[in-house]
Amino acid sequence: MGGFRDSLIEAGLLMPTGVDGVWGRSGLFEGILDGLDRAISAAGADGGAEVMRFPPAMAREGFERSGYMKNFPHLAGTVHCFCGDDRAHHGLLGAIERGEDWTAGQGATDLVLTPAACYPVYPIVAGRGPIDADGHLVDVASYCFRHEPSLEPTRFQLFRMREYVRLGTADQVVAFRETWIERAQALVRALSLPFALDVANDPFFGRGGKLMADSQRAQALKFELLVPINDGADPTACISFNYHMTHFADTWGLRVADGTIAHTACVGFGMERLVLALLRHHGLDPAGWPGSVRATVGLA
Ligand code: AMP
Ligand code: ZN
Q1: Ligand 2 (single-atom ion) residues, CB below 5 Å
Q2: How far is the CA of 12 from the centre of ligand 2 (A)?
Q3: N or C: which end of the chain has fewer CB within 10 A?
Q4: Is 298 left (phi over 0), alpha (psi -120 to 50) or beta?
Q5: Do residues 107 and 88 make contact, with C-beta atoms less than 8 angstroms apart?
Q6: Ligand 1, atom 22: nearest CA belongs to which residue?
Q7: In the predicted model, is pLDDT for residue 2 greater than 70?
Q8: Distance between CA 229 and CA 236 in Å, rounded?
Q9: Shortest-distance atom of ligand 1 to CA 156
Q10: pTM of the entire predicted model
Q11: Contact 158, 143 (CB under 8 A)
């Protein structure tokens, strides 16, 4: 991995925390991320999207209903806590002191870490009743967790995902995805980044996972915009375009005005990955970036 990661650390842009894939970031890094966030808002400004922001954890109940543990048990993070009495506390402190496992007594809470920013959106919109004839559009962002520790600086365990989520008829959500495939490419061109667009699949777990992945590809349900970032590695997915068909609508009973089941789609921006793509291609000091790129991220 070497070069690029080391240079990010040397420049102070990323700070190792002792856990692979969990980084501290500098003010410069965050300033670029904020600029990208504003550029994404500008690209989606015409949609009148409803803004929703969530903490990095969501209801365990909704997570269970979504089927995440069926498809991605290996990526999930659950929130556990101590719920014992004095005696149990004593035992816990003793185990820590002896360097033994103290976590066995931790109990599950009603929270899990959010795996993708759009997950908390569906039950909220479904709870309002049928979507009106124009469909609905949500602008959502959240820290997300995926248990995929890695030395690649582009693979975080905790990272920020910004999404636009479209809910409505099949025609409405498919048109939305087409629009965003174009808009995202225009944005990445304005950032002067090399990229490719490709059909993709999620990393479904286990033996059945390959079938799921093949079917997702065959139906072209997921596209990714990939940018070469890491030394000697495949290009990295920086933006994803997902058509869920009726998966989330079935889960939450989400209907359109005529009473039929809704369809949903989302476009997800990996914020840290986009920052890293800019640093990789234009250099670690934004002062030297092309003027057009600086302007796109608001670094006048
Ligand atoms: P996905 O739900 O897997 O399509 O993810 C949406 C977007 O989040 C991707 O296009 C990536 O840009 C970003 N992303 C996914 N996983 C990670 C990760 N481990 N670290 C950083 N960004 C990620
Ligand atoms: Zn999504």
Answers
A1: 116, 118, 163, 266
A2: 31
A3: C
A4: left
A5: no
A6: 270
A7: no
A8: 6
A9: 20
A10: 0.97
A11: yes
d(CA 104, CA 83) in angstroms, rounded, equals 12
3-state SS track over the chain:
CCHHHHHHHHCCCEEECCCCCCEEECHHHHHHHHHHHHHHHHHCHHHCCEEEECCCEEEHHHHHHCCHHHHCCCCCCEEEECCCCHHHHHHHHHHHHCCCCCCCCCEEEEEEECCCCCCCHHHHHHCCCCECCCCEEEEEEEEEECCCCCCCCCCCCEEEEEEEEEEECHHHHHHHHHHHHHHHHHHHHHCCCCCEEEECCCCCCHHHHHHHHHHHHHCCCEEEEEECCCCCCCCEEEEEEEEEECHHHHHHCCEECCCCECEEEEEEEEHHHHHHHHHHHHCCCHHHCCHHHHHHCCCC
Query: What is the best residue among 68, 113, 161, 271 to mutate for testing ligand 1's pocket, by most ligand atoms within 8 Å of CB?
Result: 161
Tens digits of per-residue pLDDT, 187-221?
Answer: 999 999 999 999 999 999 999 999 999 999 999 99
